[in-house]
Each structure stands twice: as structure tokens, then as C-alpha cells.
């Protein structure tokens, strides 16, 4: 889980590390979403006052 901005740079680091799922308290940028989808990275955004948002190419993940 990360609390910093969910940017393209963070997505690239996660992919290089071989991590398959990233959970973030901050919303992802549009470019970060594109890269996550392109590279089959599960991305979960946990907003402070609403339901989790799952951005995933593998939609079998349940939030």
C-alpha cells in the first residue's frame, strides 16, 4: 500500500519489482491507469470516504 501520488513512475517501479497488485490511497493518473492495464497490473484505489475502486485487467478481483 502506498500513500503517495499514484503516478506513471510508481507504476513503472512496481512493474520492475514484479509486483502484481498495487493498493493506493491516492487516485491514479490517467497515464498510470493506461500502463497498469497494458501490463496487467491490478490497481486498487482506496478513497477516504467511498468504496474502493478496482482498476484491473483481471476483473475477477472482488473489492
From TrEMBL:
Keywords: Cytoplasm, Molybdenum cofactor biosynthesis. SUPFAM superfamilies: Cytidine deaminase-like. The keyword Cytoplasm applies. This is Formate dehydrogenase accessory protein FdhD. The keyword Cytoplasm applies. It comes from the Bacteria. It comes from Pseudomonas syringae pv. actinidiae ICMP 19096. Gene3D superfamilies: Cytidine Deaminase, domain 2. Transmembrane segments: none annotated. GO terms for molecular function: sulfurtransferase activity. One of its GO terms (biological process) is Mo-molybdopterin cofactor biosynthetic process. PANTHER family: FORMATE DEHYDROGENASE, SULFUR CARRIER PROTEIN FDHD.
Amino acid at each position: 500500500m502506498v500513500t503517495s501520488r499514484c503516478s506513471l513512475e510508481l507504476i513503472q517501479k512496481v512493474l520492475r519489482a514484479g509486483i502484481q497488485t498495487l493498493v493506493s490511497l491516492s487516485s491514479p493518473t490517467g497515464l498510470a491507469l493506461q500502463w497498469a492495464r497494458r501490463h496487467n497490473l491490478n490497481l486498487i484505489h482506496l478513497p477516504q470516504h467511498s468504496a474502493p475502486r478496482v482498476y484491473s485487467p483481471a476483473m475477477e478481483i472482488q473489492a
